[in-house]
Amino acid sequence: MKAAVLFKDGFEELEALSVVDVLRRAQLTCLMVGMDAMSVKSSHGIEVKMDQLFDESVYDVDIVVLPGGLPGATSLRDDQRVIDILKSFNEQGKWIGAICAGPISLEKANVISNKKFTCYPGFEKEIPSGIYQDVLVCCDQNMITGRGPAAALEFAYTILEKLGQPSKDIRKGMQYHYLVK
């Protein structure tokens, strides 16, 4: 199984890198994909080197993940390549993950309609076609959404499980054992 996390300047570090960290600990391929550059700066000024630039190969992964953070999430939403890949993944029933403000792209791509989701409080107003849930992580059909930075690890563990890998050993190894399933 392969994953791709999409990055634009202004991404939220915890939300993006927790997914990369957890999936790589589980020996899954998780690509950090720069939409515009091989070096992307977070919303808190941390520069991160990408594995690759966005190209057609990203369509071959099993899940695409959108982190939050501002202006990263709005920049992802305003990028037609992101909208196109979300539509394609949804049509194929492939996994889509979005956390914090990230789900605003799901609304623009028209892939969240009548599906349950969560997001950072206040952004649900920008997602009128979905069914907002006040939870840390929410799964509905092929969508996995997370509330915000505090949900980052649970969001990453949920992605791992949806990709067919148990998270119990990874949780224990990361000392997250109080919530081991």
TrEMBL record:
Which domain of life does this protein belong to? Answer: Bacteria
Enumerate the Gene3D superfamilies for this protein: 3.40.50.880
**Locate the DJ-1/PfpI domain: which residues?**
1-161
- Matches recorded under Pfam families: DJ-1_PfpI
NCBIfam families from the entry? not_thiJ (TIGR01383)
Q: What is this protein called?
A: DJ-1/PfpI family protein
